[in-house]
Amino acid sequence: MNRIVRSLKIFYHHWMVVGFEKNIERIAIKHLHSLTELGDDWGMLELGARLENGASIEKNYKKAFECYSFVASRLSPCTKFAEFNIGNMYMNGLYHPKCEATASQWFFKSAQRGFAPAQYNYGLSLIDGWAGSNNETEGITWLQRASNNGLNDASMALKNILKGKSNEALRNET
């Protein structure tokens, strides 16, 4: 299929997903499947999120993980979101057994791409030690990056850390 036809098909399916998303979810899912068949990263990422959360489609962590992994393996604007979602799946033990160290590695990949929630999670992993070792100084640096990128949770965490409140106590509050 030539590039122009592929681009038009992707545009059409994106438009159909957004247009039907609020009204007829099963049609949106159909168009997401079409986008994944076309190799569209956004479609694959969105389908993975719906499979993970069971949004109008049966939950399937394995397929969600596969969608995220496909997008994470490519260099696109969606990569950082896929890496973050994989980190969350490891953090919560969805599909793979819970592994905080592996989650931290995925958060780091996403954090390096500038995704504030990943910067926040990676910073917490360094401070709390679930990244494999404690490094409060580097953890604070990542929290500052997340805060600078507009993440209020990171600003609050920094404020509490600077007040001397342990991050574990902060986590128990939320």
Automatic annotation (TrEMBL):
InterPro entries for the chain: Sel1-like (IPR006597), Sel1_AlgK (IPR050767), TPR-like_helical_dom_sf (IPR011990)
Domain of life: Bacteria
Any matching Pfam family: Sel1
Protein name: Sel1 repeat family protein
